[in-house]
Amino acid sequence: MKKFRLIINNYSLLIISGSGVSAQLKWTNVDSLYQPLPSSVHVFFTDDKVDSGLFRAFYLIADLKDKKLDFTVDTSKDRRLTPNTFYERNNKPLAVVNCTFFSYETNRSVSVVVKDGKIVSHNEAVKGRGGDSLRQYYYFKGAIGIFRNRKADVAWLGTNPVLKYAIAYQFPRTRAERGKLPSENSVTYNDSSNNFNKRKINGHVDSRWKVYTAVGGGPVLVQENNIMITNNQEGMFTGKAINDKHPRTAMGYTKEGKFFILMIEGRNKNASGATITQLAQIFKDLGCWEALNLDGGGSSCLLINGKETIKPSDAAGQRPVPAVFIIREK
Length: 330
What we know:
- The chain has 2 helices and 27 strands.
- The chain is mainly beta.
- It has one domain.
């Protein structure tokens, strides 16, 4: 596997050429285990090895163009619930999956969540260090969203509680000082898709990200069919942590409108998990146009018709989380 460091507009991006997986994984359709499923949704499983370690993974693929499917989220206020509890209180939807990173102290998401077109959770602000300790910064973190026209997008978001819409960039940015995020009064113009209001600020094109449903996480894994891991730009994992193996939750989509939820088992004797690099390569091999890592580890859990796919790694079973992504039939 070859790694290249690409410098564009002063941003250093990790571009990976060659497979981080020993070969493309062989996936088996396991729809029969999770019936009833609509014809636009399928479930696949693999226990092929990504390297020398044991490996188990599932993915759900759904057609965004199927208007009988609803892609939404649910959140809990200042508390955390297990995915199974979210499943029961949402009238047993087709799929429930963990998504955002969160704080154990507040039980709140620290990643953006958009429900019914409204931001219900913002990216967490981070305090500066040393002489900068009185300032707060907002990192432009990755998020995946679905618009009313059922098209998906992965972008880097800057959020601010005073803004009605998240500010989305189609290229990673470094952290921005509070107060220097774009304001709602900026001059805008609509693009042809009517999903974005674009403008230029300091030479960068940004937009009001008018998604109907979205969840945040990071780092971004694939952007415009290229593996582009923006861990440092998003202030995610420190040191060489992206090379550690863990259970993983991630989402992606194809240009043809297929939406993927990928779930990788880990931290047990049957499965050792995957690195961030391996995760990105899997999405690339699946043909995804863009993809995003979400909260993993003990939080990773995907329920399909109430049945678990991977075995959660926490000894107690499903870890309570403050937000879930949901697919349901109308």
